Amino acid sequence: MPEPLFCGDELPQSGTSRASARLAVAVRDARPEDVPALYVLQKAAMRQYALRSGLDPETAPLESLAETEEDVAAAVNHGGVLIACSPQEPHRPLATLRLTVDRHDAGMVWLTRFAVDPEQQARGVGRRLYGAAVDWARGAGAGRICLHTALANSETTAFYGSLGFQLLETSNTRGYRRGLFCHQFPDSAAP
Where are the strands (E) in 41-189, listed by range? Predict the structure, then answer.
């Protein structure tokens, strides 16, 4: 991905509420120097995700909360980690996600570790980052993106629905109800 991609609206006018304010956002591949900030961002966002999902962050069976900074570094070095940041502060990530082409189905990309700074949620940052994820997936030859998320987290499931994701199945394999959601790109054939 060329760096940085500018994909945002104008900065909000004064007097605009945080929930309705949209930010100018640059999206780029994560770099090794981003790892410490990504680790902190992921922990904060995933703790909030656990709470919104009715899970105790200290005991929740979430791989994202068990990751170390070294795990985040390994993911960044592997590739497929995108970050969104303000063009004015390109070294401060506002959001991140990971993308991996499925080992058995090259037409599908898995989205994991979608984390938006809790202070930046509902400002368009995650939506902008997801748009770049779709571009990344298309560039990899995929026609859909899939993810798992806790069904009890209505804010997150509503957000994914607004992006075009549909619930395909549910399970309790991790000790809580979670759903498999996929977003089939409109111009690609369903499997």
Answer: 81-86, 89-101, 108-116, 144-150, 166-171, 178-184
